[in-house]
């Protein structure tokens, strides 16, 4: 218990967090009412009851429906502000948030409104409370690379205007049958502009997708990566190169990547020297914010003080802050 208290209080970074996945059912209904968006659920309770997922796709269907209530820059501001205030309670001192522009532009919401709202909340919370943050634009991998290229082009003015904060790109959505290699061109363009690169890989997809993300997309971190455990040479590669994995334990449990938290690969990967970090992914949908994720793995995998300290330290080391800020944080 004393140990758990210590880890709850420890300064930490959250590096895998989809801002649209922070929308709680109450917020979804409030935005729907305000924006006159029709939902397929009658009540907060009915919506929450639908959060019984069997795999990644069953979650994504509801997650995209939830995001449909976001229309105005103010909506993105309020959503982001609420998440950052919640993160402060977990002693998050730095966070790198994902957003999915294609989810919003296809509904006629300009990418400008999305980024403006999120960025303003980040700037306010940094000024008021010192919690620093960066933003990572993710492409939806269930759509063709052409769509990602168009979304990237559409967002170029945002990278110019908000370059200090909008620092990179990622790849998310349905992983099965959507390999990283399909997005080589758009990642090449982002790399040419000096952007930071990450991708979801090895959540539901095979270890080969992690190799592809590293070799073809040249990403610096792997989001999830928990199925790397099936490929010992890959585990060694990740450890030797200090490629961080942004692991999301409660997400993995809810989406049935593991049948029991006791069988989660986190501890084995950590023991093999991999730079594992703990994150919440979509906390409103998976039943817990970042500290809940630390507690869940600490209990199920019987983590010791060294392990928990390593996880928090890894999160600060794997962040995209510049070297002086990183030195100050650790
Ligand atoms: N979008 C939001 N959460 C995601 C996850 N865990 N995997 C893939 N796409 C996502
Ligand atoms: Zn994710």
What characteristic shape results from the CA principal axes?
globular
CATH superfamily: Metal-dependent hydrolases
Average per-residue pLDDT, rounded, comes to: 97
Provide the CATH architecture.
Alpha-Beta Barrel
Percentage beta strand: 5-15%
**Rg, please?**
18 Å
The end-to-end span amounts to 24 Å
SSE pattern: HEHHHHEHHEHEHEHEHEHHEHHHH
Return residue spans where pLDDT drops below 50 for at least 5 consecutive residues: none
Describe this structure as you would to a colleague:
Helices cover 52% and strands 15% of the residues. The chain has 330 residues and is of the alpha/beta class. It has a single domain, classed as Metal-dependent hydrolases (TIM Barrel). It has an 8-stranded parallel sheet. Helix 5 packs parallel to helix 7 (111-129). The radius of gyration is 18 Å and the shape is globular. The two termini are 24 Å apart. The mean pLDDT is 97. The structure holds adenine and zinc ion (ZN). Residues 16, 18, 172, 200, 223, 281 line the site of zinc ion.
